[in-house]
Design goal:
about 325 residues, alpha/beta, D-Maltodextrin-Binding Protein, domain 2, 2 domains, 7-stranded mixed sheet, 12 strands, Menaquinone_biosynth, ABC-type taurine transport system, periplasmic component, lyase, UCP027386_ABC_sbc_TM0202, signal
Length: about 325
């Protein structure tokens, strides 16, 4: 089972929403150790120094200011694999992870984790430097450059194209490069006239090439071809034993988390400043990226419907991408 988790983590890119922007050493939120009378349980959280980690920034600040229901000690790591390992080892109670990695943790030890609430919608974009791409079908006969071959990125791109009537390799040629950093450089110098990438790489590419435009929102295309199921790529995941033993703390966390996610989605400048404060990314980069990150809060049955649909698609593309088997209904936290 450990091998299953390792394989899933190796395929982690998840559109690079969870690719670390800093080093792998954890950064603590700086929350004070003694809870005030207003704060309940002490809850340990693992996040990632990445765009997905931005949704935790307000929660971290509010906890330090004693404005949350629980007292949180949040540690941000350089990659999602480390955050997942901390959760699996019981060193933290909750982690913000890619949904496919959460499924792999569940497969490693059936029922060991539960998906509480989603915080990231899919945010891949086709970048066009030619000025000719008006919609997805403009890619017919074109070569598109991408990163993340053999990962969720590839499976989702293939799914959208295939369910739009475009066959990869016949109608659209996809050329994969080693990293999104390389892809940004290729857009900048004109080697990649068409490319697919997420934030914050999108903003960087647009800034480096004045001819580059965000041409097609693949998250929107996903909604179109998936019967309205949202592309929920990231979520707060808790140890099942923690959920069972701390019911009120979990409910309070969900409210605090929702407040933090919705603040991030609606307050770009303030959230960008917090992103820099907590060493997630520089404020100027975050400010450009946040409007396109797909930060949103989802829970309950709508979350379950969308995530289960996504995991089914990933399973059919590569079963090991979700740990070798699909999670049961107990994977999804049910609000009382």
């Amino acid at each position: 089972m450990k091998k299953i988790l390792s394989l899933a983590l190796a395929a982690l890119l998840v559109l690079s929403v969870f690719a670390g922007c800093g080093d792998k050493k954890g950064t603590d939120s700086g929350s004070s150790s003694g809870a005030s009378s207003k704060q309940g349980a002490d809850v340990r959280i693992a996040g990632v120094k990445s765009p997905a980690g931005i949704s935790l920034a307000k929660l971290m600040k509010d906890s330090g200011d004693k404005k949350t229901a629980n007292q949180y000690t949040a540690t941000l790591y350089g990659d999602a694999a480390t955050a997942a390992e901390k959760l699996s080892a019981g060193e933290v109670d909750i982690a913000v992870l890619p949904t496919d990695v959460a499924a792999a943790l569940y497969a490693q030890n059936s029922g060991s984790v539960q998906l509480l609430a989603a915080n990231v919608l899919g945010a891949l974009t086709v970048v066009d430097t030619t000025g000719e791409i008006k919609n997805l079908y403009g890619l017919m006969g074109q070569t598109v450059y991408a990163a993340g071959q053999g990962t969720t990125s590839e499976y989702l791109l293939n799914y959208v194209l295939d369910h739009s009537g475009l066959t990869v390799g016949t109608d659209v040629r996809i050329e994969y490069v080693d990293s999104y950093d390389q892809l940004v450089d290729m857009v900048a110098d004109g080697r990649a006239p068409l490319a697919v990438m997420p934030e914050p790489y999108l903003s960087s590419a647009l800034a480096k090439n004045g001819s580059a435009k965000a041409a097609v929102d693949l998250g929107g295309e996903w909604d179109r071809v998936s019967d309205g199921k949202e592309l929920l790529l990231g979520a707060a995941v808790a140890r099942t034993d923690f959920v069972k033993e701390n019911g009120q703390a979990v409910k309070d966390f969900l409210q605090d988390f929702q407040n933090s996610v919705e603040f991030a989605a609606g307050n770009t400048e303030e959230t960008a400043a917090l992103a820099q404060k907590y060493d997630i990314m520089k404020a100027e980069i975050a400010e450009r990226a946040i409007p396109n990150l797909g930060i949103a809060y989802r829970d309950g049955e709508s979350m379950k419907a969308s995530v289960s649909s996504l995991l089914q698609i990933l399973f059919e593309a590569n079963a090991q991408s979700v740990g070798g088997s699909l999670p049961g209904d107990d994977f999804y936290y049910a609000k009382a």
